[in-house]
Structures are given as C-alpha cells and as structure tokens.
Task: inverse folding
C-alpha cells in the first residue's frame, strides 16, 4: 500500500471521500468532509433521501446542518447518489455510517455494514481505505468486515488496502457544535494506516484525535463509554425504585452525592432510548458469548432500564388510584415523545413504550410534544398546543424533559382544571417546593403525595 | 427543645462536644472540633488507645494529624476517656463515630452504634443533640437509633432532644487536607435541628455544608456515592476480564473513553477494600430486603469485586504456567498490602485475600510494602526492602498501586535475575511500551505476553 501517496492526497486536499449512509451520522460526516474542502460523495440506498438532499432538504433536525448542506452544495463540494459503484470508483477513502440496530430479540444486526463491505470488496482497488464510523462490537471489524473485503476483492489487508475504525461519538442535537470539540478515536489495521487517518481527521476537525492500537480497541472505547452511561442510569433507576419505597427523595440524594468530588450524577427516568445506548450493550454481550463470558452487570443494567416503562405505568395507576380512577377510560396527557430532551427523535423512545402500555389498558391518550406539534407519530396524533392536550385530563405524565416543560405554569393549570391535577413526573423535573396546593404528585424515586 | 440556647453555645464557642469512638474517623473529628475551639472529649472502649492518645500517640497514619493532636492537648481543648458517663454528662453535642462493619455472612453489624445510643439514652438530658457520623443504612437512625434513645431516656425526639446524621465522607490518607474541602451532608430529626447542626459544622469546617430533609436522606447520600464507586469499579472489572479474552487492553480502552466529556474513569484491579466500599452495599441491601426489593446491580457489583482475588490467582497461575512452573513451591513476591495506594491500611484489603489463596496453594510468599517495612501483618512478615523480597522470586505480583512501585527499575531487576521475570500487574500500573525485553507480563484486562 502506498501510504505516502495517500498522505499526499490528504495534505493537498485532493483526497476523494465517499460516505455510505446519509442518515443522522453519515450526513453530518459527509458535510464536514466537504466543508473541509474534500470532494465528497454521499451514498444511500434510499432514493427519496438522496433526492431531498440534492434539493438541500433534510429530515435531520441538527442546528447548523441545513446551512452547511446548502453551502457545500453551492460550492460544488458534495454530490449525492444511490450509485455505489460510482462512489467506490471515484473515492480514495470510503466511510461507512450505516445503522447497526438490535432486533426484537436483542440480537445485533450488522447486515447493513456487511452489505456495504461486500459492495466495496467487489470493486476495491489498491490503496483505498475503508473507515467504519458505525457502532459495532469490538471483534466485528477484524473478524467480519476485513475478511468480507479481502474475500470479495482478492486484495490483502495492509499490503493492498487499509481499514480503520473511527466510531462516531455524536451527541444528537449537538452534532455540528461538537464536531470540533469531542475527541475522536482512531484504530487502524496497521499503525501506518492509523497514523494516516489521524492526519485526515486533523484536517476535518479541531478536536483531539486519539490513536489506539487496533480497530477493535477503538470500538471497545465507544461501547465502554456508552455502557458506562447505561449502567449508571440503571443504577440510579435501581436506587430510585428503592428510595421511593423507603420514603427518600432520589433527586435530593443525587443532588447531595453530587457535592462529592468523585461522584458523577446520572438520573433515573422512564428508561433509556435512542439509537446507541439501548443497543450498544448487546454488541458487547454478543462478543462476550462468543468467548463464553457473561457480562452480568451490563445485562442487568439493560433489564433494569428496559423495565422502567412498566415502573412508570405503576406510578400512573397509583396516582389515578389516589383519585379513585382507573386507567381504562381516563384521559392521560403525555408530555414528551422524544427519547431525550430538546431534540426531535423518537428512536427506541421509552415514551412510545409507555404510550403502548397505556393504550393496552384502554386509557385515552392526549399527546403534547413541541417538537412534533400537530404531527402523527407512529399512529398517535400529537396535539397543537399544551392547552389542547390538557383538556379534561385526569393525569399528566411527563416522559421527556424538554426545556419547554420546566416552565409550565402548574398553578394556572390547577386553577383552570375542574378536578384535582394528577402529575406523574417520570423525569423529576419539578421542585416539590414549587408545586401548587392540592396537586397529586409523584416521580420516579419520589413517593406519591398530595401537596 | 431550646434551639436558641444551643445556637448561642455554638456561636459563643461554649458548646461542649463528646465524640464516641476515637478511631480513623472519630479521632480526626474530635481533633477538628477541639482545634475549632470547642471543649471536646474523646471517648473509646479501648483503654490502650485512650492511654496512647493522652500521650499524644496515635496509630492513625494521616498527614497532619499528630501535630493537631499535640496542639489541642497542649491547648487543653481535648481530653480522652473511657468513661461514657462523664462524657455524656459533660457535653451538649454527642457525636457517634463507631465501626459499622459487615460480618462474614455480609450482614451489617450495627451493635456498636446501638450500644452507644443506649448508653446515651440512659443518661440523656433535655436539649442534648446526638450526631451520627458512622455509616449506616438509610432507615437506621429513624427506625433503630432514635427509638433506642427515646426508650432509654423517656425523652421525646425534637420536643426534648435532637438527632442528626452527618455521615463522614473521609478519604483515608487525605482526611486533614479534605476537612475544609469536602462538603458535608446534614439531615436533622427536624428542620430546626438540621439548621443548627449546619451552623455548627460551619464553625469547624470551611467546606460547603448541605442540609437535606431527613437523617435517612443524609445516609442515603453517603451510600449512593460509595456504591456508585463500587458499581463502576465492578463494571471495569467486568470489562477487564472480557477485554482480556478479546485481546483488547482495558487500560488503553479506559484511556480512550476518558476523552469523552461524559465518561468518568474507574479502574479494574484485584478487588475493592477498605472499611466503606465493601460494606456499604450491604447496608442498602439490608434496607431493601425489608421492603421486599432486590437491588440486583448493587448485589452483582459486590459479587464481581469480591471475586477479583480469584481472577488474580488465575493470572498468577497462567503466568507461572508460561514458564513451566506450578504455584506450589514457587516463590511469589507480593508488592503491596494496603487496600489503596499510598496509605497504611489493610482493612478488607484484597491483597490479604490473594495472599491467603496463595498460601492455600502452598506458594512461598515474600511481601514488600514500604508502609509495613519489617512488620508482621496478620501473621505474614513484610520484608525490609524491595531487593530482599525479590530474592530468587519466580513471580512478582503487584497488588497495591503505591507510588513507590511505579518507579521500580524492571530493567535492572531483569538484569540481576538468573531467570525470566514474571510480572502480574493487577493494578495495570506499568506501560507495556516501557517493559524490558524478555519479561513475561500480564494484568487485569491485559493478556499475557512475553515482551
């Protein structure tokens, strides 16, 4: 492999880049390469998506992204296509950013990345580099992707081509802003390939670029940091359920513990959603099973977080019971659909799970989420205003901690309502001391009380 | 209860303080009260301890502590006694700092604090305040200690006397230095009692003093922050064992993950020791069982950490096996006895567990720990120097990450040794790239290799 040649292309900004997958990770990645002055091709199997992108339209609700899309199209730095062959033939570096979800049985599905690897393998030329940004298990690149490319290309890793892991570490809602701030982890199929890709990322990001020894190590880094979050949220969920039984307010406890220098707060809630956290643990579990090892903690954390919608259901039933009502026939106002605050994204959102459970119990559901105003989300209509969703409600359930919900005037709601306001605050966003008189309130880890 | 009177005593530094238990927590606490100008009585059941303290001698190896002990004795601000009656009769505030260990079956033993509470109860006067600094489960103060005091005194909580939790948050080795830095958590039997004790602590510490709503909440804060550590160390131990099987270096992974803004590093090792962490989880488990709740994560974390000495034994056997040796008859050099770095303390130290297991397998053990030079620790003699403990060794096992061990000249050891150096680094303190040629090396989460 001619490392010097590729290094030259990087330095002279003559390197051509193809990004496979133009979704929430692939599109920002492609745009950042283009913005840095590299001729970039965005590739996807979704024709409508590609047509929209050519017309400067994107469904991805990331601050700053539409402006960059428009700019790099105008500057002729990016093109979008469904033609994989064209993209592979016209690029030096190929970046894979495809979904790697888990199925209903929690089995990781890596077929999208396998498909791209196979297509790349068939057309691969000497001195091309493949970078994977998709989240995969630590062994995936070395034991699955590199063999697929070698078999389909008849070329040899490191002698003829290079492979690198540079797992995305994006924070949805802050992807553009974080681009120059959050360090990237690079693990190459050889030390030379790694060094080269470090150089490349230095050209597109001002953030720290950290080289690790192998692609698998880079993926392990990504999974470790996300599983750290999943486990710590699970721990706080475990504490929340226990402290509620002991009559202790979990929010007060976490606030207290946060004054200790070596404590990092995480918060209980209705569960853990999004494309990464609920799936990443299962990648590790998959690799662990292959070496006859059961990662108990990681597994238990998943179970705890997955059961939180059921815990919220119990809170709702208890709160209604407090006012002599059943779920069946009651009007439940759901506040928030997104899996995290201040973004428009319902991927694996625990709110959807709670709504499904409410539906099974024949509750009447009224939804308000300012990010989905007037839309229909997976069959559920979202109201046009907070006021509309509160009409005749028997119980308000906060499922997302959107900033808009903190400022809701509970006193006014209480005043306008003909009946007792019942509030189930699964994100513990309200201060008990600020709640209006006569409201029935509970949270995850906060016992039910009439104020 | 005459809150105004006690507040006056606090402000005028006329308050008299008795501290029950003059060990690792009680002694510094008593000294700090005395140093702040409050007449203080240190009480213990151990006559020898009290005699030593009167002679300005302490076994507690805390930087700065002997100087303060000497100073407050000279200034006549402190006295030490085994006479509980004298202490109770001559104090306004009584602080309990006694051990609350778990027994061999992991059952929390709160008899020491119960005993003190009973003695206090029998002699209690109106307007006295009891503060507990000992680690206990969240329900202990409200459901065990206050009732014991009420029954024995025939006085009524809050009407006649006050109780407060202010759990110690000491970091052994840094207790004096942290006194004015680490926030304290105060939960009183009433809001007034809490406020008063906040005022008191402001007079003896420059740190933030945080009032929480109940004594149980204060204890929950303490347990939550320690269990957070136990769980995260367990998670890294789980990752370590898995990554070693996958051929990935856990230290490299943790270093990589630490570049993410929301990741807090914890480190794998031979287990978790000390008086707090291994016990605190069982306090929570005890309270949880009483309300029919099983905290799976907290329990699993304990199991993982408790099994780490067995993991280290496996590493030692594998490393010896690499050089065709059995444990039986081999000379094993143990580096480090303390449960944590840079302190002299072997309470529940995983090093002792590893030594016990080595002993069972009839290995010949040579120990070096600079903090126990030439001493006999639980029947094991500690050498007089590193060199002495290395004589004819077959395997060096690092069990504590004392700063002295980082600088060991492995190259020189390798040169002087007639055989291959085998190094089991259970704290992963050495950089692989700095290891001398021909050494056989492994760590917790770092696969065995001959360099």
Result:
């Amino acid at each position: 492999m001619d490392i010097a040649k590729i290094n030259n292309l990087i330095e002279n900004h003559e390197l051509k880049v193809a990004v496979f997958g133009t979704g929430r990770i692939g599109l920002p990645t492609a745009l950042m390469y283009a913005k840095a002055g590299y001729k970039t091709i965005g590739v996807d199997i979704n024709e409508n998506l590609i047509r929209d992108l050519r017309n400067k339209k994107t469904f991805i609700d990331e601050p700053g992204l539409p402006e960059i899309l428009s700019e790099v199209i105008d500057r002729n730095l990016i093109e979008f296509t469904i033609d994989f062959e064209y993209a592979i033939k016209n690029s030096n570096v190929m970046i894979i950013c495809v979904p790697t979800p888990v199925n209903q049985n929690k089995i990781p599905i890596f077929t999208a990345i396998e498909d791209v690897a196979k297509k790349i393998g068939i057309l691969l030329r000497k001195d091309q580099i493949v970078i994977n940004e998709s989240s995969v298990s630590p062994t995936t690149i070395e034991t699955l992707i590199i063999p697929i490319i070698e078999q389909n290309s008849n070329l040899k890793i490191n002698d003829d081509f290079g492979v690198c892991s540079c797992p995305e570490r994006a924070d949805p809602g802050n992807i553009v802003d974080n681009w120059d701030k959050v360090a990237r982890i690079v693990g190459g199929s050889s030390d030379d390939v790694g060094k080269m890709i470090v150089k490349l990322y230095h050209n597109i990001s001002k953030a720290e670029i950290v080289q690790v020894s192998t692609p698998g190590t880079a993926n392990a880094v990504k999974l470790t940091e996300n599983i750290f979050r999943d486990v710590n949220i699970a721990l706080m969920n475990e504490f929340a359920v226990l402290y509620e039984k002991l009559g202790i307010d979990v929010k007060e406890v976490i606030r207290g513990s946060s004054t200790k220098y070596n404590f990092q707060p995480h918060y209980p809630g209705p569960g853990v959603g999004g494309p990464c956290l609920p799936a990443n643990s299962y990648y590790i579990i998959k690799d662990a099973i292959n070496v006859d090892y059961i990662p108990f903690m990681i597994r238990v954390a998943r179970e705890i977080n997955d059961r939180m919608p059921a815990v919220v259901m119990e809170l709702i039933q208890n709160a209604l019971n407090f006012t002599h009502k059943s779920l069946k026939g009651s009007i439940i106002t759901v506040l928030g659909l997104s899996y995290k605050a201040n973004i428009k994204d319902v991927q694996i959102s625990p709110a959807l799970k709670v709504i499904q459970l409410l539906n099974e119990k024949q509750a009447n559901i009224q939804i308000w989420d300012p990010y989905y105003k007037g839309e229909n989300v997976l069959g559920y209509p979202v109201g046009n205003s907070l006021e509309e969703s509160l009409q005749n409600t028997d119980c308000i359930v906060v499922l997302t901690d959107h900033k808009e919900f903190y400022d809701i005037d509970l006193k006014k709601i209480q005043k306008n309502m003909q009946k007792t306001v019942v509030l189930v605050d699964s994100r513990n966003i309200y201060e008990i001391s600020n709640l209006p008189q006569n409201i029935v309130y509970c949270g995850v880890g906060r016992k039910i009380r009439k104020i």
